[in-house]
Design goal:
The protein is mainly α and 89 residues long. The protein is built from three helices and no strands.
Length: 89
């Protein structure tokens, strides 16, 4: 009903808890007619939101020392995901 924007919104929400289900769903839909670009963007959005949730959990639960060690790597991955999204435009 909401077109590509709906797929992106669902991907962001689904990625908050798990990436596997939305990845499989979008891959199957791409095989059945969904645009490969839309499916790819949806998967990247899901991975992006999942990584953000994990970064927040690291910062709040793991504490300052763990955050200092891991967040730079997490943010490098997030920047890479953003670059991929820009390349998929």
């Amino acid at each position: 009903w909401l077109g590509d924007a709906g797929i992106y919104m669902v991907s962001l929400v689904a990625g908050l808890t798990d990436v596997d289900a939305i990845t499989l769903s979008l891959a199957n839909n791409a095989r059945d007619g969904l645009s490969h670009e839309v499916a790819s963007r949806g998967i990247v959005f899901a991975a992006l939101s999942n990584s953000l949730v994990k970064a927040i959990l690291i910062a709040f639960i793991g504490g300052r020392e763990l955050a200092i060690r891991t967040l730079p790597i997490m943010f490098a991955g997030l920047l890479t995901a953003l670059a991929v999204l820009l390349l998929l435009r």
